[in-house]
Amino acid sequence: MIANKNIFSGFGLRSEFVNLIYQELMKCKFLTYADVLSAYYNRESGYYERIAYNSEPGYGELKKAFPMVLKALDEKYPHCVISNGKNGKGKAWKYVGKDNDPLGEERKAVVQKSLEEYVAFCKASVGIMPVSWFSSFFENTQLLLDANREKEGGGIYIRSSLEQNLTNIDLLPVFYKAIIERKVLRFSYQQFGREPFSLTFHPQYMKEYNGRWFVFGDAERRLTDECGAVNHELFKAYNVPLDRIIGEVDIVDDVDYIPAVKEFYQGYFKDIIGVTHEKGAKVENVVIRTKTEYQHGLLLTKPLHHSQQETFSFGSHSDGVYGEVMLTIEPNRELRGRILLYGENLEVISPLSLREQIKEILKRQMEQYSDVS
Fold first, then answer.
1. Domain spans, the chain
2. Is the peptide bond between 351 and the residue preceding it cis, with omega within 30 degrees of 0?
């Protein structure tokens, strides 16, 4: 006899729905398709009274996932799920069994297998993960010993194109631990071309961009004005590149940690590429024209920003052959750099201010390569 497949195994949207449906049913309340979609997409109350829930992306996977959970529960404990007797949109199911986690063993088996697969991936990821970071988290473990032996023997099958032997890369676990444990740190920080200064830092968020690691948080700086008076100023969302830190990083025990407001950094990075908010910049619709079909396809499969949407498919138009995409974004130097990276294959159409900035950069580059008389 062939054993039934564990409904919690697998990946993708259906697997996510299976886990969510099971969790919601264990609350022992009537549950509808709309309730699951509301929880998954974080919809406000009454949303599906105005919008048809069967138009939601993933509804087809939900239709497959719900019966799978109901069947698995009924096979384990017959009649442990009841229906409200309605049909169509209002139909709902409620778990009435006595076991508060009837499929717990099945879920545990999948979690255990997932952990084993993840550990195996970590061991194979010494070509991606910075060596110092990997060593910090797996110090004195057989996993680290095995990974080092496989690396020395050429048994590594995953590699990043980015060089991870960066200055102060070993500080990544230090800042990660400080964020988790809500610790205040103090270190010397040197901005490019300036003298180093001491910074009392409340680390809150870490981000990698273009092969460089940044830590964000509240920072207290000791400033001296023209009259020699000393003031302490607090900066919010202060940006510290790890490679600008000098010397030791110490824990400060006599300063209370300042946490970030919930979801602050999700909003902070939402409308930018990279890590920079430029003074006076605002969110705008940036229209970019592609000059080749290959470039257009590349931009669709590898978008510049999560807000990107295709506004014109590539092809012949009344004013030429091209395609267009639009980003709703705050222009910054990282965006300009990404656009310039593609050379003549991309053209900024609007806003005019960004188009002029790109033109000025290209003009200066042309002057650098002009013939010397």
1. 13-102, 107-152, 169-270, 284-368
2. yes
HSE-CB for 357 with a 13 A CA cutoff = 15
Name the burial class of residue 359, with classes exposed (0-12), middle (13-18) and buried (19+) by CB atoms within 10 angstroms of its CB. exposed
pLDDT in tens, 29-73: 999 999 999 999 888 888 888 888 888 888 999 999 999 999 999
Number of Cβ within 10 Å of residue 47's Cβ equals 15
pTM: 0.64
Longest Cα pair distance anywhere in the chain, in angstroms?
91
Question: Are the C-beta atoms of 330 and 271 separated by less than 8 Å?
Answer: yes
- CA–CA separation, 84 and 92 (whole Å): 6
List residues bridging with 223 in a β-sheet: 231
Question: Can you name the CATH fold of 284-368?
Answer: Alpha-Beta Plaits (3.30.70)
CA distance 107 to 109: 5
